[in-house]
Amino acid sequence: MQEPLQNLRYHGSASNYMTKLKLTSAILGLGAAIIFTAPVQADDIIQTLPSYDSPGYDFVTSTPPAGATTIGTFTFTIPVGEDVTGITISGTFGNGDSPTTALSDYYLGIPGGDETEVPVAFCDDPTANCASGASATDWSATLTPTQILDLSSALAAGSIDFTYTWDTPTFEIPFVDQFVYAGPTTLDITTTPEPNTILFCLSGLAGIVVLRRRFRKV
Amino acid sequence: MKKIELALCVCMALLAPGLFGAAPAQNAQWTAASAPIQATIAGGPWTLSQGGTATTGGAYDGPIPYCTPGGSGGGTPLLNPTSVVNPFNPYYFPWVVGSGQNVKGYFDYRPKDINEAIVEAISTDAGKTWTFQQMAEQLTSECPNSDSNTANDTPGGNPAGNDDGEGHASLISFSGANFLYTLNRSTPHVDSDGLIVHQIVPKGVNALNPLPANSPFMQPPNCLPNCVQPLAPTSNVIAGWNFNSLSGTQNTPAPSTNNSSGTPAASALGMTNNYTYSTSPVTVGSVNTDDVTATTLSSDPLIVLANNSLANNNVAPNDNNAWRIRGADGKAGKANEGNGWNLAAPPCTQGAQFMVNTTGYHYIVLQFDWYTTNQGVRDLQVLYTTNGGTSWTPVGPIQVSGGGSAFNNQITINFHALGITSVENNPNFGVQMVSVYDPDYQGTPAYSIPAGGNVCSPTATGTYTGAELDATTNQPDVYNNNSGNWRFDEVNFLGTANNTNPITSDPIVNTTGLVNPDGILAVVPNTYPIEVLYISKTLNSDYVAPTNYPVCPPSIPNGNLNDDVEVVRIATTANFVNFTDITPFNTPAFSLTSSPNTPIQMVNGLSDPSTTSYSGIRWVSPNGTLIKLSNGNWGLFFGGGNCLDGDSDAFHAIMYAESNGSDLTNWTVINGINNPIASIAQVSNVTDPQSGQTVTIPANAPVISQSVAGGPFDWFSGRVYGPQAIVTSPTTVSLIFSGYNAGFQLGGKSRDYSNYRNIGQVNLSVANVTLP
After folding, report:
1. pTM for the complete prediction?
2. What would the pLDDT profile of B684-713 be if each residue is shown by its tens digit?
């Protein structure tokens, strides 16, 4: 059985013992100061899906599927002890194959599943760059805390779908196929250590301080 | 007091724009940010540098000839791997899309007298270097028979020696649909037919998907005397008429091909009637008197030897037979001798009908060639029946004649693509091609269709017009009620038993509504209906009022003469095929007489088709660029030329103009002939035909430095045009353009085998405005 802390003997001279104890306390104190004063380090998880070309539909002889179509799935691992504190997503309407896209909206997640649908980009105006410009159009979105919360189950699972829906066109080009063209899409998840983790650090430091005082009394 | 003075100063500052007028928006000021370079291409078909030098070698027998093995051995046209990098020639008329460093370009590949094709390539450095992706719509796969390949400069020759295929490619991209437009260069279609419309579905290296490798105009090798183009397929034909084995009066011509289970039947509509004709004296009544007659340049190249003394050489015009629809057209004043076609006929009652049993066939496609004489009725509508003619339904758009005395070839109605399946496996199927009122006619009675009706509605209003536009107004005129007729050739009903696509070639779909288009100058971004600026070129029109402008003297240095009239016009489209020209009337500025020029439809300020000044812009070429500027104006890079060149191809200089605010029909040229962005070689001490002054052109150094024949930038010292400005930052563009060396046309006779139709690149910076 280990001797209780108060009966520990240092096998050496008392003065050497005290010097080493002071040194150890100083080192631990310095370490505590670093932990207390250093900012909490955030990590970024970045995933990119490749370009996407949809099938064509002319809205006369063929119509696109109702609901969301998946462009791709972001897969990732949130490190243990870390929370998701920020999500941004960016891409283009149009891509290297075509500078324009059919009117459509992009989402993270799909309805009806474990994920909640979070809209991230819209191409709704036929005269906007996304539909009638000369080059692919950049878009980006930064999710709100509420939106991040909506995706919590997907984040926990390490898998989020990137999807799109077709707008009901305010026009039709009869018998001419329209396509959704999306450029490479990048998801950037920012994580930081959980509050519990910090608390454990602080508790450990407090324990060290207590021990130090006890040694002094001895 | 100090506070009062300060307050007064502030008030003056705030009110000054209202009191004294706001400072006018400043125009963009362009400067060169790099030296122009010849671009390179990795991979792709044969290039000039592979053939040799300016005076030695060539496509036939150069170090790396056009074909492998080449020379008398002919062989297979070369296709370089992407590991092989060459100067980017012979390509021209670039059309580039994108911004920044990653761009995509469509180019006109045209080795002289050898071939013409559309090539697509990509660049990751804003157009300095390119990588070949795909080539499509080539005119021929034949090998040259000499370095000049001029020995057989006739269509259908063997080898063809022909580079008049599809050119001047341009792209409209909208809502994920992409349309490529090309110009049919062949005679007599160039600058009169509508542009050819191709829908492309680009996917990676298949950037021109699904365009076929070969153009519908291609003549297969060794095809004499019975050349059959891919355009007129003999396979998958349920029933077809080419009329070649028929002669004389033909009111119900028999089909030339019948694979149906019935008896196909053709007949005219409405040519027997009691209408009154505008003859003098008046004629009442008409009797159907159709016949077959030799008519040039349908899609059927077969020669009817009895019709054409040149037939043995298969030289255009190759007069094969067409079916002519008309009345007797006999003596004026004699009963029943009328022409058949009449203003009093209700819409959709005059034309032709074809009944075809499609039992056992699916995926039904109709293709036909339609010809109008100059006075023939301008507008045609296709109708179909599935109940043996009890009822008829319009299908497809109104077809508009290209101006008379020419075929609209291979008009295609793809019932399968239209989702009309009731015509399949149907013994009671038929079509009619009938005359309808002209929706473009601006006079009275006004054109209208009743609510819920269609072009055939009995209560539709309007009038028929003639195919040839009015010489003064350039608008359609009321049909003359006296003469003119329609003709048909290569009427084919296609289908397959297994419901696969029966079309084995790329069917030609032509734009309507563009007036003698030479190509698209620029697409206006962020518009729907789409707006385009386009080049309208009327060949040999200087002698015809109201465009009988002063003609140019012989050009310098090669003594050419040219009397084409070319203007910039504006049009809109909602379906990428049918355009509406909305060009206002403006008056060309210069006139040698005291009388002002007659207003014509043209965009104002870019060019003056009547100027003979060496400092003026008489002609403008297609493939330019529009950019929306921060000062509220549009900026336009364009190519243009004048009498100094003697050529309406308009290649003297690359210039820059700005619009009057958002108004695309009024322009101010900022960088013109004498202070251009780029210019061909300087010409000094020549007498200006208009002013009589001795001039040097350009008077000032071009923005990107002066090209010199045989010296710096020789590769665009002969021609320069086709500017494509790609925005690379808010203050810079990459300008991609095409150019020829001067040696190509010095004296009009020499041929430089090494260096024509180059693609080049230069960076420009701009002050006073920012770019999108």
Report:
1. 0.72
2. 999 999 999 999 999 999 999 999 988 899
Rounded to whole angstroms, the Cα distance separating B389 from B429 reads 8
- Residue A133 has its nearest CB partner, among B100, B526, B530, at B526
- Interface contact A100, partner B, CB < 8 A: yes
Pairing of strands A159-166, A69-75: antiparallel
Distance between CA B274 and CA B292 in Å, rounded? 24
At position B637, the amino acid (one-letter code) is: F
Q: Which position has the higher pLDDT, B283 or B591?
A: B283
Place of tokens 């780029």: B678
Residue B748: phi, psi to the nearest 5? 70, 5
Chain B partners within 8 Å of A101 (Cβ):
175-176
Q: Residues with Cβ < 8 Å from B26, sequence gap 6 or more? A: B631, B768, B769
Domains of chain A, earliest start first: 5-38+197-217 (no CATH), 43-193 (2.60.120)
pLDDT per residue over B78-115, tens digit each?
A: 999 999 999 999 999 999 999 999 999 999 999 988 89
B397–chain A Cβ distance below 8 A for any pair: no
At residue B156, does pLDDT exceed 60?
no
The per-residue pLDDT of chain B, averaged, comes to: 86
Give residue-wise pLDDT tens across range B446-486. 999 888 778 999 999 999 999 988 877 777 899 999 999 99
Q: Residue A186 forms beta bridges with which residues?
A: A48, A90
Half-sphere exposure of B11 (CA within 13 A, CB side): 6
Which of A101, A169, A175 shows the shortest C-beta gap to B418? A175
Domain boundaries, chain B: 39-223+504-510, 237-496
Q: Does B99 contact A at CB distance below 8 Å?
A: yes
Q: What pLDDT was estimated at residue A24?
A: 56
| Displacement of CA B261 from its chain's centroid (Å) | 41
Nearest to A181 by CA among A116, A74, A103: A103
Q: Which residue has the higher pLDDT, B638 or B16?
A: B638
> B98 and A177: CB-CB below 8 Å?
no
pLDDT of residue B2: 53
State the distance between the two ends of chain B, measured CA to CA, in whole angstroms.
47
Contact A178, B175 (CB under 8 A): yes
From B531, which residue of chain A is nearest by alpha-carbon distance? A132
Q: Do B417 and A127 touch (CB under 8 A)?
A: no
Crossing angle between the packed helical segments A195-217 and A14-37, to the nearest 10 degrees:
160
Q: How far does A44 lie from chain B, in Å, by closest CA?
A: 27
A177 CB neighbours in chain B (<8 A) are 177, 199, 201
Show residues of chain B in contact with A56, CB under 8 Å. 176, 201
A186 in contact with B at a CB cutoff of 8 Å?
no
* pLDDT of A22 above 70: no
Q: Would an 8 Å CB–CB cutoff place B174 in contact with chain A?
A: yes
Residue in A54, A97, A175 closest to B417 by CB: A175
Determine, for residues B99 and A135 on separate chains, whether the beta-carbon distance falls below 8 Å: yes
Predicted ipTM of the assembly: 0.75
Minimal-distance CA residue of chain A relative to B416: A61
CATH code of domain B237-496:
2.60.120.260
Set of chain B residues whose Cβ sits within 8 Å of the Cβ of A59: none
Q: From chain B, pick out residues whose CB is under 8 angstroms from the CB of A181.
A: 176
